[in-house]
Amino acid sequence: MHNKKFLLFLLTGVFLGFIIGGYFPHFALNVSFIGELFLNALKMVVLPLIIVSIANSILNMKSLESFKNVGIKTFFYYTVTTSIAVGIGILTVILIKPGEGFPLHSENVFQREIHFSVRDLIVNLLPSNIFEALVQFNILPVIIATILFSLAVLSIEEKRELQLYKLISELDIALLKFTEWIIKFAPLGIFSLIASKIASMGGAKAIIPVLYSLGKYVMTVLIALSIHAFLLLPLIYYLFIRKNPYSYLGKVKEALVTAFATASSSATLPVTLKSVTSAGVKRSVAEFTLPLGATVNMDGTALYEAVATVFLAEAYGIDLSMTHYLTIFFTATLAAIGAAGIPEAGLVTMVLVLQSVGIPQEGIGLILAIDWFLDRCRTAVNVFGDTIGAAIISR
């Protein structure tokens, strides 16, 4: 009953956010600090939660062999689902062709200087300075460093006698309690985040023209995301769990609503952990798979980047061959793994995909006007993919 009441408050916050932001923009901007405080609180707890959760879940495993079993399954699931998501995105955009008849004009172009390469992604997997990585919120290197350190502790036969083992276990309990306090303010924070974003776009009058001009593109992205989220992921869940996937979706809906509001899978992590454990996922598995998934399992982001790249190619009048599509497929999958779990991170890694097939990166400016909305949708899909993975690995 408590969960149902909390979900009602969350949905009310989303609804009021759109109404107040659209028709009372001045008031919405004045209360934007509430959303900033909520987002800051989530970000404040995210890094400690990731480090402690992963360390605690690994240390609770019996041996390195146990980790190998869970780790391989987790990475295999993430790689397969992300690849399938990219495939769905490419097929959907090829069929609908949203970029045809949408020529790019100079006034629609926004020059965005971003430098990103596969080499940088690989080199930066291991931080030269762990404290610098923490300060810069560079989560993937932090996760890898945490895993390596935890495995070193796990390899010590008398690990349960170590004070460090007990400290991490106690920190995990304390952080989860602290997280529960923050989550109680989610409805108010979500209301403020959405209201201020709508207001900053100019209210309801400004949003409608943007949606209309890019309507076919938005529809393409939403159709592809819906196919992945409501057909493919539930099918995978049913094949492995043999239970109703939509019932499970209902149990983790708090995490999906929060993901939509914050546009950050990392910031949503505290809510995601709470939701999946309440849905019956083993806590030890959730604490390993979810923090990792919030950084490397970006189904929605990978799908979105594939759709956006083909859309921009069509808008520029660039013909893509089968080789181009295969390049987009592999590059979008790789780029999504490198996308941080923060708002708009997909725009940064999209440059890698655009460059791989010779599409001008300034074309990103065309989709910036609507990306704030699509970013929230793809983040919700990212998080749902994480929860499905946690349930399967737990099984």
From TrEMBL:
<dbReference type="GO" id="GO:0015293">
    <property type="term" value="F:symporter activity"/>
</dbReference>
<feature type="transmembrane region" description="Helical">
    <location>
        <begin position="37"/>
        <end position="55"/>
    </location>
</feature>
<keyword id="KW-0813">Transport</keyword>
<keyword id="KW-1133">Transmembrane helix</keyword>
<dbReference type="InterPro" id="IPR001991">
    <property type="entry name" value="Na-dicarboxylate_symporter"/>
</dbReference>
<dbReference type="InterPro" id="IPR050746">
    <property type="entry name" value="DAACS"/>
</dbReference>
<feature type="transmembrane region" description="Helical">
    <location>
        <begin position="217"/>
        <end position="241"/>
    </location>
</feature>
<dbReference type="InterPro" id="IPR036458">
    <property type="entry name" value="Na:dicarbo_symporter_sf"/>
</dbReference>
<feature type="transmembrane region" description="Helical">
    <location>
        <begin position="75"/>
        <end position="96"/>
    </location>
</feature>
<feature type="transmembrane region" description="Helical">
    <location>
        <begin position="7"/>
        <end position="25"/>
    </location>
</feature>
<keyword id="KW-0812">Transmembrane</keyword>
<feature type="transmembrane region" description="Helical">
    <location>
        <begin position="185"/>
        <end position="211"/>
    </location>
</feature>
<dbReference type="Pfam" id="PF00375">
    <property type="entry name" value="SDF"/>
</dbReference>
<keyword id="KW-0472">Membrane</keyword>
<protein>
    <submittedName>
        <fullName>Sodium:dicarboxylate symporter</fullName>
    </submittedName>
</protein>
<feature type="transmembrane region" description="Helical">
    <location>
        <begin position="133"/>
        <end position="156"/>
    </location>
</feature>
<dbReference type="GO" id="GO:0016020">
    <property type="term" value="C:membrane"/>
</dbReference>
